[in-house]
Amino acid sequence: MKKLCLFLMVLTFLFLQTGCWNSKDIQTMAYVTAIGMDYEDGKYITYVQVLNFANVSKTESTQLGKNIPVWIGRGEGATVTETFNAIYATSQLRVYWGHVKSIVCTDRFLKNGKRVKEAYDMVNRYREIRYNVLLYGTKELLSDIFQQKSILNLSPTDSLLDNPSQIYSQRSYITPHYGFKIISEINEPGQSAMLPSIALDKGEWTEDKQPKSMFRIDGAFYLKGSQSLGWMSEKELEGFRWLQEKLSRSPINIPDTKKPVAAIVMIEPKSKILPTIRNGKVYYTIKLKMDAYVDEMVEDLSTQDMQKLAEQVIEDQLRKTYEIGLSKKIDVLQLGERLYRNYPKKWHELNQDNDFNLDATSLDKVEVKVKLQHTGKYKARSN
């Protein structure tokens, strides 16, 4: 009898439970996938890109190619927190930040590096937002950036903005940069921070006969501390790519003229920057090693000739990028960071009165070694 009474009490208790009171259905939340930061007339302006993940999941299965609606929220305020609260006021649904994959800052916002640190500090303090968020700059309108769809009308989460890895596996120029890395570069002595610049290319793709814009990384913004150093185009930065550790695959023409004799794909470069001090002046040597393979041959060349031509092209590109950086007072190749690591006393001595100490003679030697792994299904002459 006692066991029966105990059983009835437990059963009654279970029926009285109301379940998880704070649980939310996925369709009743607004999922932010990207954040935009702008600054105008003394006010911060925040944009959010919101997706309905119920629609996204359907598209991935049975409705491939169907247009995915994108909602864009906007808030203004004297602080970044105030802009977020302005968005909450009209969102209608609970805003969830755990799916944020990218933050895009306008060129106006980037004119002051303190704004970048303040905005990232606020965003990174919130527990739902992850550390591995991609950070971009842009000259475009944020509303246009967040309305942009991927090819085949796939979800915006499958575009270059949120998922660049597939594109970079085939063509690497300016590698993706995460927010935590950029903030560390801003705070690091002897180093400038680089933000990839995302733009809309409106002339390369069409859907049937209708022109369609697509994302493109067209260059990079540079920051040092609270100072904005400027912007450089992808063409101007083509020499910098060889110093990026995560570069996986990048093509060149040999020679780099209007009439190349071959197209070579360079893979996984390994670089060293070695500062030396002679008569009180600092000189830098860059050593590069990388593998390569032939993508296309216009003329019959030997393996040795192609390697030498590739080495010369890469050296020329590095020196050209360095010279452009000099004209804009940007240490594009991050030479000063290596001096700070190897000779901190000398770095502090040089930076007492002037934080830019490079000139036309500072880049002394560029030593490039290319090893051609294979020439595809066709063989090349050995000599």
TrEMBL record:
Lineage: Bacteria, Bacillati, Bacillota, Bacilli, Bacillales
Main localization category: membrane
Protein name per UniProt: Ger(X)C family germination protein
Pfam families xrefs: Spore_GerAC, Spore_GerAC_N
UniProt keywords, alphabetically: Germination, Lipoprotein, Membrane, Palmitate, Signal
Domain Spore germination protein N-terminal, first and last residues per copy: 22-199
Subcellular locations according to the entry: Membrane
InterPro entries, sorted: GerAC_N, Spore_GerAC-like, Spore_GerAC-like_C, Spore_GerAC_C_sf
Secretion signal, residue range per the UniProt entry: 1-23
Record family assignment: Belongs to the GerABKC lipoprotein family.
Annotated Spore germination GerAC-like C-terminal domain residues: 219-376
Gene3D superfamilies xref list: Nutrient germinant receptor protein C, domain 3 (3.30.300.210)
Species name: Paenibacillus aceris
Coiled-coil residues: none
Annotated membrane topology: Lipid-anchor
